[in-house]
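I am still learning, so would you mind making up any protein sequence you like and the tokens describing how it folds?
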Amino acid sequence: MESFALTLLDWFRENGRELPWRQTHDPYSVWLSEIILQQTQVKQGWDYWERFMRRWPTVEDLAAATEDEVLREWQGLGYYSRARNLHHAARQIVALGHFPDTIEGIKQLKGVGDYTAAAIGSIAFGLPAAVVDGNVYRVLSRHFGIDTPINTTEGKKLFAALAQSLLPPQEASAYNQALMDFGAIQCTPQSPHCDDCPLMETCSAFREGKVSELPVKQKTLVVKECHLTYIYLRCNGETAIHRRPAGGIWQGLYEPLLMEQLPAGALLLRQNVKHVLTHRVIYADFWLWETNDRPALPDGYFWIKETELDRYAVPRLIEKLLSFVKAK
């Protein structure tokens, strides 16, 4: 097992990704990168990390921002609960007076679980905590030939224990990053680069021809479909929006009129636009309603100038609607 870690560290020195948040041990910078990279590819997340660091260079700056400002800056990344948790955690840190420097302390931050705490703890503070994410599951399951489903209680315990047993305590930061990069670059989900893999000779999956079968994941996700009808109301240079309530999708984001009954004179812009979320598929119809007479608005909606729309964070689906309106 020691050779596994040494091989990964050697590979990392030659092939590791040069990322801006790796040039520092500042916990704020590291934490911000880890929250952004949850559910987000590095290529896309990089720009957002730089944008946040420019606007809010310290955790105190981020804590002083409004939730609307943070959501607007986050727009386009999806999974907006991450942005709300980020903002809440920034205020937790400021209230504490310092960034927590233990695994348990880091896990007290809103939106931080085992993986994120281990990543922040090892990279920023050198704590000997092993990370376990999708890349780690894939590398370990293939190399050690483990077919226990990774999304079961048994699987999570098994891989967490194995990952911790492999961790060289004095090089926790480099090893964790090496394992993550190895999964992202070398041992990829599709078409992994087995022929030039430094672990090829000791890899059970390669030896037994099971690379494409591992890791194993139980199918538990039930995807629901729903249909929405949005109406972009235009009245003398103004439009109407409302903020989505807590407890549902897109909490805290803004959207135009959501109605079942169409007003007279509405123009269809697009029909059955498909938008895929983790647990549901949305099909949306987009309509434009132009009128010179202000209609009564449903509860919770309010008027804004069309020129001020960019100040409000909206879901990606609504971004599409706005692009159709502009293109008309």
Remarks:
- The chain has 13 helices and seven strands.
- The radius of gyration is 23 Å.
- The first strand starts at residue 224 and ends at 234.
